[in-house]
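Ticket #4471: structure output looks truncated?

Reporter: J.K.
Steps to reproduce: submitted the chain below (127 residues) through the standard prediction queue, then opened the result file.
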Amino acid sequence: MARLQAADCRIVTRFKSNTPLHQARAMPLAPGSGVLSDRIGFLPGRQAKSRKNPMQDAVREVVVTTETGKRLRILSNDLDAPAQEIADLYKRRWQIELFFRLMKQMLRITHFLGRSRTPCAFRSRWP
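Returned output as attached by the reporter:
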């Protein structure tokens, strides 16, 4: 993620359930949005006992509820966009993931090859 941030990419992904957000400050929420909370803070300095976290800049945590009632903690490095936009980006990203999973299962595709001119292209390794 640190390399993507250095390339000025916007990151939108899920927090691990046990990842704390340090020095978090709450951001105002838009009325009527499906966002439960919006905070800006810092990730822990260490990812493990011996591994330093390479992402030292501030990140954003947006908490939303899915259609099934599950709470999702979304991580983003975009500190300026509205919280609902970040939640919508994650939802669209997840729909793309589901599409490729379906394509792989139905068509028995074992490898995907993508060519993109943008440095922020999502690259995935399929088994």
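Triage note (M.O.): checked the attachment and the full token line is present. Residues 35 and 64 are 5 Å apart (CA to CA).
Status: closed, working as intended.
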